[in-house]
Amino acid sequence: MEMKRVGIVGAALVAIGVSVHAQNAPPAAPANNTPPVQPAAPAQGSVPAGKVENGGVLYKKIGCYQCHANEAQGGLSGPRLGPNLVPYARFSQYIRNPTGEMPPYTTKVLSNQEIADIYAWVNARPKPPAVDTLPHLAR
Amino acid sequence: MATPLERRTFLKTGALAGAALVGTPAAAAAQAAAPAAQAPPPLTHAVESAAPADVQVLGDNERAGSDYMLDVFKSLGFEYFFANPGSSFRGLHESLINYGGNKAPEFITCCHEESSVAMAHGYFKAEGKPAAIMAHGTVGLQHASMAIYNAWCDRVPVYVILGNHADAAIRRGAEWYHGVQDAAAMVRDYTKWDDFPWSLTHFGESAVRAYQVSMTPPMAPVVLVLDGGLQEHPISKDERLPVPRLTTPAPPAGERGAVEGAAQMLVAADNPVLVADRLARTPNGMTLLVELAELLQAGVIDEGSRMNFPSRHPLNQTQRARAAAADADVIVGLESADFWGTVNAVRDQLHRSTRRLAKANAKLITISTGDLYIRANYQDFRRLQDVDLAIAADAEATLPALIDAVQRLVTADRRRVFQERGAKLAQASRAAAEANRIAATYAWDASPVSVARLCAEVWAQIRNDDWSLVSSYYSNDQTNWPRRLWNFDKRYQWLGHAGGGGIGYGAPASVGAALANKKHGRLSVAIQTDGDMMYAPGVLWTAAHHQVPLLSVMNNNRQYHQEAMHVQKMCNARNRGIDRGEIGSRLTEPNIDYAKLAQSMGIHAEGPITNPNDLAPALARAIAVVRKGEPALVDVVTQVR
């Protein structure tokens, strides 16, 4: 058993579309060192219909939550994914060909439909309360 | 308290086992396992009813060798000896509780030697001076070894006292398998100095030398092996045994010319960054770093092995550390444990690769005692980073000269440039802080509880206290949730991490640090992970028994989460199944009830809490207990970090 410096492994959908992670991104860049993913790039093609419920099951089952936390809000090893943050094309592309610490998910282990399901679930996450309504987070 | 019958049984078992061990170990084991209720043999009754042939007690003009040992230990200022009791140091144990009155040092009963060392590790982090641990030279040290390694990697002094019976002619049975020629050998690769004194005069000098060596930067654990005979043999009260005076050497400061060179690079730089890791040995370390940073209006990255820089200082760039390092044209590593890792990165994929994070032409400077001392076997010295200037010195001791040199070089023009730079850094720091606040709102009401919510709830209740975060599993991360949300501005509020990455540090280190904080009236809080707690749950009893005020908030994600991520990475890379990554790392089926675990050892405890709205009242009740001087635990079922 061990623990290492700087949250260690990105196991899931790390750094999708984040410019600073374009090539050979550093290991486990802390999520808050990473600007939130911006929906800058336009989606290419239509977004396939996804099954939200199955996406939630998959999100847990294949380990996405390990880095991106249970509600896709981001953790120490992976940035926030949603809701409504990343165009589908980039989401899907990064899962297949990650450039940072995230391990790849090939078509052999994760189908395109399953990616669509996960994408649907991520985008169905509830919006958070406004920060200024939470006294716990007052400066 | 042992009854006469228990004592008889002990004597019988010990004698038989000792005799049999010389010939047939199996027979000895069988005898040792005999039921305690068995009637004592007639010989024992005869012995006990006969007049003693030789009354062996200390004479009026005698004292124990271990009394002198305690005189020396008291002179060193130890407050606590952390130990699981062991016969090889029974002489010193008795001196401590009777001759020394169990005060300064006080015996803190531990349930495992690894916990003893980790408690001493945590104590040092809060108090700034070492505690001692006692253990058998064999089995006790073997238990303690991982925690000693942690302290070594963290450059923390722990004073390790081992018992051992050197004279084979008079060993009892157990003293054979508890005996060793060279007890310290097994930890010599990760301790700084050791000795096995042959006389009390020798002991006195070695005991003081051990303390001096451990406290001279780079600080590290030391080992002193105490012979059982030396502890137990009477000595005349008339025998003059001096207690050597402790003089802790002043740490080495940087060479003047090298310091001037560093100052010139810093003053000329467009965007210098100061990276501090094990810098702040004392509270003055943070004061000096603030002074240097403000003088230069330079960004600071606090890598977190110590509390180096106020978390909300406008020049603190820790929350955007990579960006700050990437923008820098001069980077100064101040007691950086892994300076290569500050300016480079490893990509951990099937085929690993490295890349430089810092600009190719960035000037690199290090000030570190790491250049003064290195060992070969264990690899905690990290990769060699080529730098433009390396100053082999203690960074805190060097800062005053560096500040003076910078002050002499700063012109009015440079000062205007510095102010503009400082304003930009302050803006970047504010933006990072605001991003953290917003990030914490996501999954705010989710169950299991988000780690951000947990930390925000704790912060809301302690922020007006004199608090100390005594342990946080992710404490080696620069960017864990307490550091993202809480206002750290005192040395004892952040105590760094285990050093060597050995799990089982957090829970005992919390108790040790909370013990140090107790006399200062600080509210000690631990964000306690579940996997770590299961290595050393006995520390809960120690906290209850010794009335250590400590709030342990369980960050209970029911798995060894980081290891699950590692295995997931392997699963993906091998492309033959991605849904079994948690196997081997889960702590479920059954779930562990940490509240019941704590309650069983006499601690106020609540949980498991899964609804974040239940957290605040549970924390309030627990904090009320802690404020009365007792430990308390709140078990919170959390998301992964």
Question: What can you see in these coordinates?
Answer:
- The complex is a heterodimer of chains A (139) and B (641).
- Chain A is an all-alpha fold and 139 residues long.
- Chain A is 26% helix and 0% strand.
- Chain A has 4 helices and no strands.
- In chain A, helix 1 (52-61) crosses helix 4 and helix 3 crosses helix 4.
- Residues 1-12 and 14-44 of chain A have low confidence and may be disordered.
- In chain B, the strands form 5 sheets. Chain B has a 6-stranded parallel beta sheet with strand order 3-2-4-5-7-6, sandwiched between helices. Chain B has a 5-stranded parallel beta sheet with strand order 10-9-11-14-15, sandwiched between helices. Chain B has a 5-stranded parallel beta sheet with strand order 16-17-18-20-19.
- In chain B, 52% of the residues are buried.
- In chain B, helix 6 packs parallel to helix 7 (139-153) and helix 17 crosses helix 24 (615-627).
- The two termini of chain B are 47 Å apart.
- Chain B contains 24 helices and 20 strands.
- In chain B, 42% of the residues lie in helices and 15% in strands.
